[in-house]
Amino acid sequence: MKRTLVRNGLVVTLDGPSGDGQRLDILIEGKTIAAIGKDIAATDAEIVDASSHLVMPGFVDTHRHTWQTMLRGLASDWSLAQYAKGAHGTFKHLYGPADIYLGNLLGRIEALHSGITTMLDWSHGISSPEHADAAAQGLIDAPGRSVFGYSAHFGFPNNAPIDEDLTRLRKGLFASNDGLVTLALGLRGPQYTSMERTEADVRLARALDLDVTVHGGSAGWGKNRPVGRMFERGLLDERTTVVHGNTIADDEIGMMRDCGCSASVSPYVEIQMGFGWPATGRLLKAGIRPSLSIDTCTAVCGDMFRTMNTALIAQRGLDNEGIENAPDRVGMDLGCRDVVEFATIEGARACRLDHKIGTLEVGKEADMIFLDIEDPTVFPVNNPLAMVAVSAHPGLVDHVMVAGCFVKRDGKLLGIDLADLRRKGLDSQARLVERALAEAGADPDISLDGRWHPQTGDYSAAAVTNRNPHDKNA
Ligand SMILES: [Zn+2]
Fold this sequence. Notes:
By secondary structure, the protein is an alpha/beta fold. It has 16 helices and 17 strands.
């Protein structure tokens, strides 16, 4: 069995406050952390000198629409309704299996490169079994830990059944829960399907022993009580993650807590696109510690550092409102350690992987990242948690390890031909734009360079959020 000894790192274990910021060694045997301590002896191990690195658990992104990778920047100046129209209305149906494969592969690699060792791909670009297989294969071909959040026939609304295809995947490619890539259901839920379809989909997921992740309460959708309506039918449990939750009512947050649900906050997208303020503080007040997610690289950055920054500063802005009346207050309600935990162990909990990852502990699998602490942008590192939550950035991620194996070393991803993938990705992108222009008709201005501003039409916020999925059988 391969043994690796990480020597003298500035270690943030997140396993209790005493584990943060000490100079420690970490011994890894196979994929498992075998020992953490000072001056560990292991003569037959590969030695990795970590004296110039902060060593911590890899990040967990609990919600990313990875298929959209080649549309990066498309929606960075757009409203939510424009994103719905442009990414979903214009482009989604033009994706073939090869396009979704490349989007997922390149997006998963991007996340890994910036230290996201586990990523839940909220895969709502699927329109056929071939698309599903291609999306899954994109994750499998990238050397990270992923959850494939299958979400076929995602529309505004769409009630098409998924039973046959999800069962096929569970019995075939995803028969085991032990691999690096596992299956979950990205539930279209009350916002995009009828309650009958929502209930059938959740019952199917439970019968197949799958977790459920569902969008609930962004912008106007919160008015329709998405969480409350699932609660009434007994569809919430500890295997449910609610994404966003900005505009759900306080009693719905209470239902999430009482049922043991997880939460996924996507602070950057939520603020930018007008979903409402991130629910971080409201969740914490109710007793739910959220995970964090990127959501879509069409609009925002793909790394966890800026996501943590945004979560922290958004909540502090809310907490500090009126603070001029309390100038002598000591400390902040939300700390640096909190957001680092949201980005690691809380993400692991949301993916039901906290028995394997999320902290550095003996017996857990070694998913770790190594951040350069000598870089002038973070030197001197007086407070390791402040460095991670406030100052750090993807350029510091020198090494990444997943299940005891290095997948990135000295700044370079291992075993990946990036030049070849870039070329294939750009070919796919050109085909997508060509198909979109061929269909454009009255909207021939489609481009990815920032000049295109789609009219929202059927995708306007009012049109979409007031559309009742009960009435549709699209
Ligand atoms: Zn989403």
